[in-house]
């Protein structure tokens, strides 16, 4: 009987752990979306030792303790801010992403963030290995992060495709205002010395850094009308 009970406990723990995400020392990057706005608010959520910080647009921060519960394969994270408000986020993919809502100044924002390394470390993989990782069919989720003249961080989601067969790329922004800046951006790319070098069809070259062996990539895209633009790729 003891063996049967122990086996049942172990089985339960195995099932529970399979769906129990670990948020300690975790970081998430993504967006907070406000209905009717042409561009989203770049949002970073950091967890550490039972505390959480939600940084929206680099202008509004929510701090507080968090609790997590797991049931039916879904994890719920509830952040109780220092002001007493609650931010409820859920994950159905073992913590790889979080979705939820937050309220600020009477407005409700839809939050969608993806788990990224807590600190970024530039890749040291050999060129051939890193090239294979970057061009993997897993693809990337792409954001154009926009630094406003006042330092606020905004974002536009984008469709970004790398074709490993011919080392071509293409990017189409979901935001019409960002699409006007970039147009139908396409060209060729190469991976060298931990960097991705992209040359568009007009001959413009930009160079980005590949972090954490291909899991996170940042590419400075230059400036336009006082805006600083960075392409952020997350796998």
Brief overview:
The chain has 235 residues and is mostly beta strands.
How does this structure look, described?
There is one protein chain. This protein is mainly β and 235 residues long. Helix content is 14%, strand content 54%. The chain contains three helices and 16 strands. It has helices at 2-19, 127-134, 176-182, and strands spanning 27-33, 40-48, 51-56, 60-71, 74-81, 86-91, 97-104, 107-116, 141-147, 153-163, 168-173, 185-192, 195-200, 205-211, 216-224, 227-234. The protein has a 16-stranded antiparallel sheet that branches. The longest helix is centred in the first third of the chain and has 18 residues, at 2-19. It is globular and about 55 Å long.
Structural category: mainly beta
- Arithmetic mean pLDDT: 91
Major sheet: size, sense and barrel closure?
Answer: 16 strands, antiparallel
Which residue ranges are poorly predicted, with pLDDT under 50 across at least 5 consecutive positions? 2-19
* Cα Rg: 20 Å
Multimerization status: single chain
- The overall strand count is 16
Distance between the termini: 46 Å
The portion of residues assigned to helices is 10-25%
- Total number of helices: 3
Features:
mainly beta, 54% strand, 16-stranded antiparallel beta sheet, disordered N terminus, 235 residues, globular
